[in-house]
Amino acid sequence: xxxxxxxxxxxxxxxxxxxxxxxxxxxxxxxxxxxxxxxxxxxxxxxxxxxxxxxxxxxxxxxxxxxxxxxxxxxxxxxxxxxxxxxxxxxxxxxxxxxxxxxxxxxxxxxxxxxxxxxxxxxxxxxxxxxxxxxxxxxxxxxxxxxxxxxxxxxxxxxxxxxxxxxxxxxxxxxxxxxxxxxxxxxxxxxxxxxxxxxxxxxxxxxxxxxxxxxx
Length: 216
Ligand code: TMP
Prior knowledge:
- The chain is α/β, with parallel strands linked by helices.
- It has eight helices and five strands, in the order E-H-E-H-H-E-H-H-E-H-H-E-H.
- The protein has a single domain, classed as Rossmann fold.
- The protein is globular.
- The site of thymidine-5'-phosphate has 13 residues, from helix 4.
């Protein structure tokens, strides 16, 4: 059975390099694999991505931002992720629901109850099988993001916003049995190695569960 693996973290945590490495790990195991990003990943969800990232000549309410994230997520999950998993293709997600909990919940202050009911309405019981959280100091991550160019509307939210988002990530991940934290302040090679090791441990666990199911 294919799994949905999600990579989470603040800007500049190194998600793209880690995802490239995880794709190679899955291919070495001869698994079919695709990668997705959120918000985005379908034509409509990519249009929503542009919409949430760009600067507007009006204030963007936290409700608008939140609903757009879930609208994009619904398009991606129903049109891409679920069909891929059904056909046996593994999916590596660059962000998923935990980003909304960290950014809109921790960062903007949307209540966990509101997030929970939107999640229930949009995703039901659908959830990642395994989450890798790349933990980085916001000041370090933002400096890396700034080095890549102009900051987008969300990246301009300020250090305190990202401190709250990080704290929420850390609290949530600590309570998730199927999530692993990688210290993203290390050299990128080491971050990738740690992430690849964590994924290999997860794959071993999946393969041995499948083998013992086949035995019965
Ligand atoms: P990125 O994938 O290039 O990091 O850009 C996505 C931006 O959108 C990033 O600033 C995080 C933000 N975001 C949210 O605020 N909530 C969400 O639910 C998701 C998926 C992303």
